[in-house]
Amino acid sequence: MNFIILTLDKYLKPTTSSLVRFLLVGIVNTFIGLGCMFFLLNIMRLSYWTSTLTGNAIGASVSFLLNRTFTFKSNVSFHKGVPRFFLIILICYFSAYFCSKKLVELTSQYYLLSTSSEESASVLLGSTLYTIANYLGQKYIVFKNSSLRKLC
Predict the structure, then answer these.
(1) What is the pTM of this model?
(2) Nearest C-alpha neighbor of 142 from the set 10, 51, 22, 27
(3) For the segment 68-91, what is each residue's pLDDT rounded down to a tens digit?
(4) How far apart, in whole angstroms, are the C-alpha atoms of residue 71 and residue 143?
(5) Nearest to residue 58, comparing CAs of 72, 76, 79, 39?
(6) Alpha-carbon distances of 62 from 47, 81, 110, 116, rounded to whole Å
(7) How far apart are the first and last CA of the chain?
(8) Whole-number Å distance between alpha carbons of 84 and 47
(9) Interior/surface letters 73-111, b for 16+ CB within 10 angstroms, e for the rest
(10) Which of 33, 61, 58 is closest to 131 using CA atoms?
(11) DSSP assignment of the chain, as one string?
């Protein structure tokens, strides 16, 4: 984890906005989370829910550590931040992936999609909805005393 933080710090100017940092952490988090999801779903043949929950749990852990130390340089205590963070993650996860699965199921009746393609489309849509909701939750609830609040 320190390697990622040091590498990002090395290549970014100290004045780079926390919004840019949040987006960079999001890219790292997305690659790790989606990589895990697709590996579990397509290689390990685990269920949609197991794959997305596990991938998001791994990505969320990376996200909390990077956002707290690198993005926000937050003074929010672990005691306060971790429960808020994971509550937001769970709310975002179940909302985003439930909605994406239902939306793809509704629209797939007009297209001939295999079950595998339908699940992959649900994962991609769900990850987009999840990212947006997670950003808003972290910005306004988890790290609300951080420098990002001043930016927006």
Answers:
(1) 0.69
(2) 22
(3) 888 878 888 889 999 999 999 899
(4) 10
(5) 39
(6) 23, 14, 38, 28
(7) 28
(8) 27
(9) ebebeeeebeebbbebbeebbeebbebbbeebeeebeee
(10) 33
(11) -HHHHHHHHHHS-TT--HHHHHHHHHHHHHHHHHHHHHIIIIIS---HHHHHHHHHHHHHHHHHHHIIIIIS-----HHHHHHHHHHHHHHHHHHHHHHHHHHHHHHHTTS---HHHHHHHHHHHHHHHHHHHHHHHIIIIITTTSHHHHH-
Residue type for 146, please?
A: S
Question: What token pair was written down for 80?
Answer: 């306060």
Tell me: the pLDDT tens digits for 36-61?
999 999 999 999 999 999 998 999 88
Letter for the amino acid at 132?
Answer: I
Q: Which amino acid is at 46?
A: L
